[in-house]
Every structure is written in C-alpha cells, then in structure tokens.
Amino acid sequence: MEHVASFANIPIRVEHPKNDPLALAKTLLHELYSLVNKLLQTNENSILDLRALPPLGAEGYKFLKEQLGIGEVKVHIQSFGRSDIQGTAYPGIWWVTHYNQDDELLTEMLEVGFVPQLLKDPKDDVILGQCKLYELLQTLKAAS
Asked: Do residues 113 and 93 lie in contact, with contact meaning Cβ atoms separated by under 8 Å?
C-alpha cells in the first residue's frame, strides 16, 4: 500500500508578518537587483513606475530614497514641463521624475539602464541633425 501524506488532522495556523511599512520598498530593492542582472545579461532597460504600484507610504518612500542614495549624475530637462533624472548610488539605477507645465508631479520611475532612455536621441532626430550639419558644411564650403 502506498503511503500518502495528509494534513487533515494537523492543526495549521497561518501567521501573517507584522504590517511592515517597508515591505514594498524592500521588495522593490530585490526587483531592482533582478533588473540590473537582466541589464547586464541583455543590455535591455527596464522601468518601475512608482505611481503604478501600490503606494509606498511616506516611510517606505523615504526608506527607498535613502537606500538608493544619490549618485554623481543629475540632469534637468525643460520641455513641456520639467523632467529630472538623478543617478543613484548604484550605477545603472536612475530615479526619473516628470512634471507638467504647472510643476505638478506626473510620473516617478526607477529606470535601470546604462543610460536613461530620456537622454537617448531618437534615430530620426539624429538623421535630422546629420542633414542640418550637412547643410552647414555646404554653406561653409560655399563661403570659402
């Protein structure tokens, strides 16, 4: 006769961990570690949209900001509203915030990448830039 394990007569009590206000922030740190690993293996950027996740709460938000720290690079972009990109103490992890024209927060994200996507020129813009540079060179050549 085959032995089958059964829990029918064993009392089971499910214990929930105390409500940890930092639980989501700690989970995000683990996710960031996984995304950095993915970046190193695939060169693919990833984004965690903090506004699309359950709220971190003031304590969790502060904890996450403190743990990620501040890196060497900070960029302010002014276009249809302000965008700020702050490198963290962990290279490859960027804190990106976008504001509208009234300086109200629109989005807040953690981006994992060698360079934040916002700083990369689209190919069409580079092609346009090349054409404009060619025109400049032609103008300078004609003036010579």
From this structure: no
In a domain, 17, yes or no: no
68 within domain boundaries: yes
Residue 140 inside a domain? The answer is no
Q: Per-residue pLDDT for 14 more than 60?
A: no
Number of domains in the chain: 1
| 87 bridge partner residues | 94
Strand order of the β-sheet with 105-112 is 46-49, 105-112, 93-99, 82-87, 74-78
**Over the chain, what is the mean pLDDT?**
88
Query: Which range marks the domain in which residue 68 is found?
Result: 23-124
CA gap 131, 121 in Å, rounded: 15
pTM: 0.77
- Which residue is associated with the tokens 């916002």? 118
What three-state secondary structure class fits 134?
A: helix
